[in-house]
Design brief:
The chain is an alpha+beta fold. 28% of the residues lie in helices and 24% in strands. This is Superfamily II DNA/RNA helicase, SNF2 family.
Length: 95
């Protein structure tokens, strides 16, 4: 995922994660400059969203979820054509 982010230098990227998880510092320390991380209480969603698509699946944003485990994920068209609106409407999270 970090490789993909590095290929998008002019794109706003925000990681939204569950608040208070032990691995949040692990993730935060590895984020490139300009990438923000927002912690939300009781979040369990696993999605990567851009204006065109949403990548939805079982992968947690953890070391195991991103590098070790077999996960099931799907890429769908973002019917809102806007990443922020998708997050607001589908996850009830306001950036």
């Amino acid at each position: 995922m970090l490789d993909a982010i590095s290929e998008l230098p002019d794109t706003d990227v925000t990681f939204i994660v569950r608040e208070g998880e032990d691995h949040n510092d692990f993730v935060r320390e590895r984020l490139p400059d300009g990438v923000t991380m927002l912690e939300i209480e009781d979040l369990h969603a696993k999605v990567v969203v851009c204006d065109e698509y949403a990548y939805i699946g079982s992968a947690n944003i953890t070391r195991g979820g991103l590098t070790l485990n077999r996960e099931v994920c799907e890429v769908i068209e973002n019917e809102y054509d806007n990443a922020v609106i998708y997050v607001e409407e589908e996850l009830d999270v306001y950036l």
